[in-house]
Amino acid sequence: xxxxxxxxxxxxxxxxxxxxxxVALWLFPTVGLxxxxxxxxxxxxxxxxxKAAFPSEQNLIIRADGPELQVQEGDLYVIEGDLxxxxxxxxxxxxxxxSRAINxxxxxxxxxxxxxxxxxxxxxxxxxxxxxxxxxxxxxxxIFVTAITPPEFTLANYQNVLFDPDNREGMMKxxxxxxxxxxxxxxxxxxxxxxxxxxxxWMDFPGRxxxxxxxxxxxxxxxxxxxxxxxxxxNEIGIGKGYVGVWLAHTGFGLPLAIYLLRNYMVGLPxxxxxxxxxxxxxxxxxxxxxxxxxxxxxxxxxxxxQFLWTWNxxxxxLVFLIDSTGDTTVMTKQIVExxxxxxxxxxxxxTSAFVSIAVPLAVFFSMQKYLVRGLLAGSVK
Amino acid sequence: MKKLLFASVAVAAxxxxxxxxxxxxxxxxxxxxxxxxxxxxxxxEAVLAEFADQTGADVRYxxxxxxxxxxxxDAEAGSAPNIAVFPQxxxxxxxxxxxxxxxxASGTADWIRENYAAGQSWVDLGTYAGADGNDALYGFFYKxxxxxxxxxxxxxxxxxxxxxxxxxxxxKALSDQIVADGSTPWCIGLGSGGAxxxxxxxxxxxxxxxxxxxxxxxxxxxxxxxxxxxxVVAAIEEFxxxxxxxxxxxxxxxxxxxTDFRDSPKGLFSSPPQCYLHRQASFIPAFFPEGTAVxxxxxxxxxxxxxxxxxxxxxxxxxxxxxxxxxxPGAQALIEYLQTPVAHEIWMARKGFLTPHKGVDTxxxxxxxxxxxxxxxxxxxxxxxxGSDLMPGGVGAGSFWTGxxxxxxxxxxxxxxTEIQASWDAxx
Lengths: 382, 428
Hints:
Radius of gyration of chain A: 32 Å
Strand content of chain B: 5-15%
Mean pLDDT of chain A: 86
Structural class of chain A: alpha+beta
Radius of gyration of chain B: 22 Å
Oligomer: heterodimer
Shape of chain A: elongated
Largest sheet of chain B: 6 strands, mixed
Helix content of chain A: 40-55%
Low-confidence stretches of chain A: none
Helix content of chain B: 40-55%
Largest sheet of chain A: 5 strands, antiparallel
Strand content of chain A: 5-15%
Number of strands of chain A: 9
Number of domains of chain A: 3
Number of helices of chain A: 13
CATH class of the largest domain in chain A: Mainly Alpha
Number of strands of chain B: 11
Number of helices of chain B: 17
CATH architecture of the largest domain in chain B: 3-Layer(aba) Sandwich
Order of helices and strands of chain B: HEHEHEHHHEEEEHHHHHEEEHHHEHHH
Strand order of the largest sheet of chain A: 2-3-8-7-6
Largest interface: A-B, 43 and 48 residues
């Protein structure tokens, strides 16, 4: 019964479950990154992001106010204050005053300080230290508490990446520069590739098959091979490092895939339309502009998405062909790497920057996504 | 306070300028390419801004985290910056051999000998064979890191009644004491992405200097004695005595290779402390938890030498070397400017800068801990440069790293050393 056309396969549920699993698998790291972008670096270092949403029992070291804030009450010298910011729901269970004994006293009970005097910490985090002698020393007493703290999230990372005065200018410049790189680097290869693909698909000339094979062969050449020779060439012809160079490089590296994709799509267009047009006296150029281009729109759009995402996320090509030591040119990816610091330890900045830089590609993808699948499949499935 | 410091720097600048013939470079662009990003970038830009003020040159600094690869690409293609700041002398030596560096002005070597502490060793470290095979001074050292430091939390020591050890014997006794008290003495992490293993190379180098005379260290770095020499194997095993001892290391010996070096010091500050000691270079406070005051919340002591071995107080360090990759009057003037005390004092007044320059005013140091570090540098009876930075890249930034990860994972020191020697032979 399963294979009768028009009836639903009983294996639909299996398909649904595997799709759900695959989607979850794909989203898992992204969600982790998103959660991490709202956490401080210390939180990231001490606990996993999957624990971020729940209250957790933590061992904390909090420093009480220093001796300069002590007040005299009768015979006693007193330092009093709160361990936590007001408004945070914290429950302290046990506390201590030495790193060797962090749970020597129960919250609400009186304990003794190592250098003389008494201390009491309430379960809400209020502490009071008393002593008959004045407190001395340059810093406040360390209080070790074991407390259940509510989940805590921060917008400080986004604040830092987007609005910090030190970064804002650089980010804004990098954003504009990245657009300056990506838009021409997307349009130029499409223009060139569309002409080439039409010729390879519909114009008869000797050696056409060989040319197509050569283009397919170029797909497997790693672009890293070309970095130094190409830069040398740019330097010799006087382009040097700059926008023209990076546009040319992206165009060159993108063309094989673009030609291959568009040619496969155009070959699949109905022959009748094109032959009719020829009979009606249309020139090759007219056929290309009036018939082929409008019909190929899904393929053009899908390649545009590819090329845009690739140039937007690119760091390597930009570093080699664009960014010189004058510091005038930079791109988003480079700017983000810079935020990581010399030794690259700022994970929270990395997570946040990833979401900031993903915004534009996401917008592009969602506005054009209906063409993506159509354009990809149209070339391969008849 | 800060303003006052900068003011005093400015005064010092005026006084110091007598020596630097501030040539007029108005409008000339001088490009500098280096490994510093973030806070360090601001610091180096402040130093360069002073040069721009003095000469009128348009100085541009660009940093990159993939400096080592990028400088090669730029040099090969002919679009090199005027000045490159190498984090490893080994790479500078390679570039000099390939003819990409310009020798420094003729008087520079003499100047370094006269004005840097242990001047001759800095000249030697900056002297490489050029494309023509002749030795010349190509590199100028500026900004030094001290590596022989052990970090600890003074208040934790106080709580437990521990004293700062002054000899290696004491340090081992302290470690045993901490174990006996039911805690873990050390936090060690070797993880560093593609560079995983490098913190262990520093340990081994420090152990070499503490078990063998410096001449043996030099022979080892130059591969005049093989890597699997018993003396080197013994030094690796000295490191193993700490890192491969489950009771000594937070998380057990198995966690050493997988813990990121940036996360490993955090155990010092946890409650209860996961460890009491952490051996790492002078830059590590950048990875302490936010708000940690160095000198109060955390402090350091000199990684001590064996009292019984009579090898003095050796200090392991590293540094950045400035070299001219595209010669111009501006580039020459910039190297000349780095010889003035003010170029050092500007960064000293900020953070994370040590210098062997004897003519600087050490009172301008931004915080007292830096001064303490500089004292370690000046009190050293032996100063040796990080050996892995001097070895060929394939060893010092390759098989030595991976070999140390294997060793931390349980392979024998002899096997690891033999493999590293084999990879070194393959490079010859």
